[in-house]
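Hello,

Our lab assistant flagged a job as stuck in the queue for most of the afternoon. It eventually completed. Since we weren't sure the result was trustworthy after the delay, we are filing this so someone can double-check. Below is the sequence as submitted and the structure that was eventually returned. Let us know if re-running is recommended.
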Amino acid sequence: DLLSQNDAFCIVKYGDQTVQTAVLMDNKAPVWEEVLELELKQMSGDVEFSVWDWDSKTKSNFLGQVTLPIEPLCHEPETVDDWFTGEHELTGRNPKEMKSVKGQVMVQSHFVSLNQVSDSSLGSQIASKKSSIATATAKRPAVTDDETATERVAQKSSMKSQRQQHGDKQTGVIPVLRLRLSAANLRKADLLSQNDAFW
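-- returned structure --
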């Protein structure tokens, strides 16, 4: 990497999940043209983004990281094309690294709730579930008591809210957070080269 620019990659960790971008060779301002996905089994905790300089002969070099709470990333979009974008300064893991780390990471997030699943396989599961519910409802006798009807509506609303946040255990479908990443102004990790960066 003596004459190259950055070969960057990024690692994303959330709970017990770890996903990683590809390595972008010879690039000092990497834009990873891919979408990473995290399953949201619960809407809490932090997401860690760490940027690294890949090296084929030695250990990859740490370039910086940022930790973000999951909740602000989960803005429910109005359309499948809406992405929430934020720019965040990279930091070090300890006081020594804090002095050398520089650069920013741009995080674009797209929250896919149970009502907005665009993936065909998940969508078919939800459609099947809705169909079975509709069939079962059609077989029920009409409710004549207004108070009972109101209670059932409230109960359904509560159950829908729980599924929206934590997933539907009966179908196995859970919300998904999709991520698109890029970085800028990364420090030089090698003596004569730019960074070989990855997430």
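-- support follow-up --
The delay was a queue issue, not a problem with the job. The result is valid. The chain has a mean pLDDT of 76. Residues 150 and 156 are 10 Å apart (CA to CA).
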